[in-house]
Design goal:
Helix 5 crosses helix 7 and helix 6 crosses helix 7. The chain is α/β, with parallel strands linked by helices. The chain has a five-stranded mixed sheet with strand order 1-5-3-4-2. It folds into two domains: 107 residues, Conserved hypothetical protein from pyrococcus furiosus pfu- 392566-001, ParB domain (Alpha-Beta Complex); 151 residues, no CATH class. Helix content is 53%, strand content 7%.
Length: 322
Amino acid sequence: MPKDPIFLKIPTKRIRPNPNQPRRFITPSAIEQMEASLREIGQQTPAKVRALTEAERLADPDHDYELIGGHIRHAGALKAGLATLDCLVLDLTPEQAELAGLVDNQTTDMHWLDWVIAIEKLNQGPAKLKQQPIADRLGFSVGRVNNALKIAKALTPASRDLIFQQLKKLGPDKASSERPVLALAGLGDPHQVEKALPVFLERRMTEPQAQRLVKHLQEGKPLEDYNHQSASKSSQPGIAGTSTGSQQGHIPLPPVSTQKPNLTLPELWEAVKAAWMNFGVGEPKSSLEEWVWGVRAIFYICIFVWVTCLVIKAVLWVIHLF
């Protein structure tokens, strides 16, 4: 029977991070903010740890405990030079601690791909949990678990690395979100997804744009011929590792046309949205957000036209005076 948690002040350097920590991406700013908070008001929430087994202590004599939850607190405490860390010591096996760490991360902004990998691990690990037990343990819907497993099946290790490279380069606010990647996973073949991913990431496609790319490829058309109007036929800021051409699986974008395009109304709408994105407004992360985002773009364009007209009117009035 598991023992009750024990509250201890543990030397910070005797605690090691969990090597299987599901949260791969932690921004440096998060650690800096934690360091500042610890210096100013001290530690308000204890970290969660487990005691290392005898075998683990023999293999790692520098540590006595392993983190379950509180990796940012631990990193901030080390940076702040705190001698001890307030901890709850849980009586858990390494396997139980891994699940507890996932549950602990539900209250944090863990990246969606970290959750995908964690759900895949629960499904394919020793327990081989089905969708419903995973959903019950994590407090997710079965639909979310199914989507995560579909994405995991479609992403090769190389594809996952490309997504994390983009995340590190652009940050979580501008990197691709889960829904567009789920749409790209509709290709089914992981190798085809891997081939299309550099173009998908470079153009920072929305879910509808990804669906159109999938349709293009499923019709048997070459990726090189894909000419999506929302990219405005110009390169978007890329991700680390995609600038080396075919060596990294990068497919060059179509050359910029020097002729005035004859756009239909839907194509013009896509072009306006793409041009607005180039001004750094951001990337919509769902179909609903895409329309809200588009209406906002039109609103700002109308304000710009209105201000321009006022300026022209003022200039003409001044000229008339003289």
